[in-house]
Amino acid sequence: MACNPQRDALKAEVKATLALLVERAPGKAVEVRIPPFAAVQAVGGHTHRRGTPAAVVEMDAETWLALARGAMTWAEGVASGRVHASGERSDLSAYLPLL
Predict the structure, then answer these.
(1) pTM of the shown model
(2) What are phi and psi of 57, to 5 degrees?
(3) What pLDDT digit, counting tens, does each position of 13-57 carry?
(4) The CATH classification of domain 5-95, taken from the options 3.40.1000.10, 3.30.200.20, 3.30.1050.40, 1.10.1200.10
(5) Which uninterrupted H or E stretch holds 75?
């Protein structure tokens, strides 16, 4: 597999910002998915153990990084359809931006 520095940098930034989210919003109530790079569980509340989580947030890497950097608000991401959030506690606006 060929090395792709841009993709590697994108992946590293996604993982680093997701780690910040977990640090600031510890818990396992919400699964945050940024395919194909990573998924984490965060936010306090009911702990997810197996199967489909009760609360899921999913978006592409560019959208996640725009939210993490403050270049996009949570409301803008949801309204535009770039952020898919379902379930209790899936609104991450209280934790963003991260940087």
Answers:
(1) 0.91
(2) -125, 130
(3) 999 999 999 999 999 899 999 999 999 999 998 765 666 778 999
(4) 3.30.1050.40
(5) helix 74-80
